[in-house]
């Protein structure tokens, strides 16, 4: 190597960019995790008996869109946190936006509902086990996300683990929509979110150990 070439290389600084990975390396484990979550839901819970009727209701699609939007935002956070030096940018907006929109809709619904109907809108019939089921269904996706992230270069390990847990929890909520009988935005905005935050907390706790280089 010529001296001038060496000086040019050193002055440009180290190249910290990650080599591009084939899409299948990322998509296959995540798809397998999502499929395992769906299979687990089908075997343990089954589809909602009136699912064909529910898909005709706007409330069903609101529930599904809320969960899917948070799953997408969570995966976007995972991708950013696996790149050293990548900026988080508008991630707080993408993560908080769906929650804020649904909470506004839930507030309007509560204000319009009769006082004796408000408790039912919040508690529903499945609040005792809804968050637990979402957290349980998230485990295959969570494992797949951690496996994928270990092949990359996360530096903020606790935050990256939390992002993996949140993305997995939100994706599991999408799957759980096919079983859940609840349609109230008030219920979904609290109990679904609680179910997503459980794997988020787990990811924050084990991220430094599981994602260490």
From TrEMBL:
It holds the Pfam family NrsF. The keyword Acetylation does not apply. InterPro entries: NrsF. Keywords: Membrane, Transmembrane, Transmembrane helix. The chain crosses the membrane at residues 27-47, 59-78, 90-114, 126-147, 159-178, 190-212. This is DUF1109 domain-containing protein. The lineage of its organism: Bacteria, Pseudomonadati, Pseudomonadota, Betaproteobacteria, Burkholderiales.
């Amino acid at each position: 190597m010529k001296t001038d070439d060496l000086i040019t290389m050193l002055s440009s600084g180290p190249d910290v960019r990650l080599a591009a990975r084939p899409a299948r390396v990322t998509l296959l484990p995540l798809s397998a995790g999502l499929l395992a979550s769906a299979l687990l839901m089908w075997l343990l819970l089954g589809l909602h008996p009136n699912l064909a009727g529910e898909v005709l209701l706007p409330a069903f699609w609101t529930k599904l869109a809320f969960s899917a939007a948070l799953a997408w935002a969570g995966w976007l956070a995972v991708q950013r946190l696996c790149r050293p030096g990548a900026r988080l940018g508008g991630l707080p907006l993408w993560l908080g936006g769906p929650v804020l929109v649904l909470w506004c809709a839930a507030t309007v619904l509560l204000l319009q509902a009769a006082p004796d109907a408000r408790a039912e809108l919040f508690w529903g019939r499945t609040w005792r086990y809804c968050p637990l089921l979402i957290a349980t269904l998230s485990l295959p996706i969570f494992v797949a996300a951690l496996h994928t992230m270990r092949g990359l270069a996360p530096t903020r390990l606790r935050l990256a683990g939390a992002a993996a847990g949140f993305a997995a929890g939100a994706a599991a909520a999408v799957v759980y929509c096919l079983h859940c009988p609840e349609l109230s935005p008030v219920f979904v905005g609290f109990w679904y979110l609680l179910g997503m935050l459980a794997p988020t907390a787990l990811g924050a706790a084990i991220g430094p150990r599981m994602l260490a280089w």
